[in-house]
Amino acid sequence: MDVSHVEVRRISIAAGTTGGAHVHNGPVFGTIEKGSVTFQIGDEAETTLRAGDVFYEPAEVVISKFDTTSEDLVFLGYFLLAEGSAPEIKSRHRADR
Fold this sequence. Notes:
9 strands, mainly beta, Jelly Rolls, three-stranded antiparallel beta sheet
Protein backbone atom coordinates (compact mmCIF):
# COMPACT_ATOMS: atom_id res chain seq x y z
CA MET A 1 0.00 0.00 0.00
CA ASP A 2 1.33 3.42 -0.94
CA VAL A 3 0.50 5.76 1.92
CA SER A 4 -0.38 9.27 0.77
CA HIS A 5 -1.68 10.69 4.04
CA VAL A 6 -2.37 9.99 7.70
CA GLU A 7 -5.57 10.97 9.50
CA VAL A 8 -5.37 11.38 13.27
CA ARG A 9 -8.50 11.03 15.38
CA ARG A 10 -9.09 11.24 19.12
CA ILE A 11 -11.65 8.53 19.89
CA SER A 12 -13.59 8.07 23.14
CA ILE A 13 -15.41 4.84 24.03
CA ALA A 14 -17.51 4.30 27.14
CA ALA A 15 -16.52 1.79 29.82
CA GLY A 16 -17.88 -1.73 29.31
CA THR A 17 -18.22 -1.41 25.52
CA THR A 18 -17.65 -4.55 23.44
CA GLY A 19 -16.15 -3.26 20.22
CA GLY A 20 -16.77 -6.37 18.17
CA ALA A 21 -14.55 -7.96 15.56
CA HIS A 22 -13.60 -5.58 12.75
CA VAL A 23 -11.11 -4.79 9.98
CA HIS A 24 -9.71 -1.52 8.65
CA ASN A 25 -8.93 -0.63 5.03
CA GLY A 26 -5.46 0.58 5.99
CA PRO A 27 -3.02 0.08 8.85
CA VAL A 28 -3.82 1.83 12.12
CA PHE A 29 -1.45 2.83 14.90
CA GLY A 30 -2.85 4.01 18.21
CA THR A 31 -1.82 5.44 21.56
CA ILE A 32 -3.95 4.91 24.66
CA GLU A 33 -4.40 8.24 26.46
CA LYS A 34 -6.85 7.24 29.21
CA GLY A 35 -8.46 4.02 30.44
CA SER A 36 -7.77 0.49 29.25
CA VAL A 37 -8.92 -1.95 26.59
CA THR A 38 -8.73 -5.70 25.98
CA PHE A 39 -7.06 -6.04 22.57
CA GLN A 40 -6.71 -9.09 20.32
CA ILE A 41 -5.63 -9.56 16.71
CA GLY A 42 -7.08 -12.71 15.10
CA ASP A 43 -6.31 -15.75 17.26
CA GLU A 44 -3.29 -14.19 18.98
CA ALA A 45 -3.24 -13.86 22.76
CA GLU A 46 -5.37 -11.12 24.31
CA THR A 47 -3.57 -8.23 25.93
CA THR A 48 -4.69 -5.32 28.08
CA LEU A 49 -3.57 -1.92 26.84
CA ARG A 50 -3.35 0.98 29.30
CA ALA A 51 -2.55 4.69 29.19
CA GLY A 52 0.78 5.20 27.43
CA ASP A 53 0.62 1.91 25.48
CA VAL A 54 0.90 1.88 21.69
CA PHE A 55 -0.87 -0.63 19.43
CA TYR A 56 -0.92 -1.60 15.75
CA GLU A 57 -3.81 -2.96 13.68
CA PRO A 58 -2.73 -4.31 10.27
CA ALA A 59 -4.89 -3.52 7.22
CA GLU A 60 -7.56 -6.10 6.33
CA VAL A 61 -6.74 -8.30 9.36
CA VAL A 62 -9.52 -9.12 11.83
CA ILE A 63 -9.20 -7.32 15.14
CA SER A 64 -11.04 -9.82 17.33
CA LYS A 65 -11.35 -7.69 20.45
CA PHE A 66 -11.20 -4.02 21.26
CA ASP A 67 -13.30 -4.10 24.43
CA THR A 68 -13.12 -1.39 27.05
CA THR A 69 -12.74 -2.38 30.68
CA SER A 70 -14.38 -0.69 33.67
CA GLU A 71 -12.93 2.70 32.64
CA ASP A 72 -13.84 5.03 29.78
CA LEU A 73 -11.24 4.84 27.00
CA VAL A 74 -9.62 7.69 25.07
CA PHE A 75 -7.04 6.97 22.38
CA LEU A 76 -5.40 8.62 19.41
CA GLY A 77 -5.76 6.64 16.19
CA TYR A 78 -3.36 7.21 13.29
CA PHE A 79 -4.96 5.93 10.07
CA LEU A 80 -2.50 5.39 7.20
CA LEU A 81 -4.36 5.87 3.93
CA ALA A 82 -3.86 5.54 0.20
CA GLU A 83 -4.54 8.50 -2.06
CA GLY A 84 -8.25 9.28 -2.28
CA SER A 85 -9.27 7.01 0.59
CA ALA A 86 -10.80 7.69 3.98
CA PRO A 87 -10.70 5.50 7.11
CA GLU A 88 -13.14 2.58 6.96
CA ILE A 89 -14.11 0.04 9.56
CA LYS A 90 -15.98 -3.13 8.62
CA SER A 91 -17.65 -5.37 11.19
CA ARG A 92 -16.76 -9.05 11.19
CA HIS A 93 -18.08 -11.98 13.15
CA ARG A 94 -15.47 -13.27 15.57
CA ALA A 95 -15.64 -16.61 13.75
CA ASP A 96 -14.52 -14.93 10.49
CA ARG A 97 -10.93 -14.63 11.69
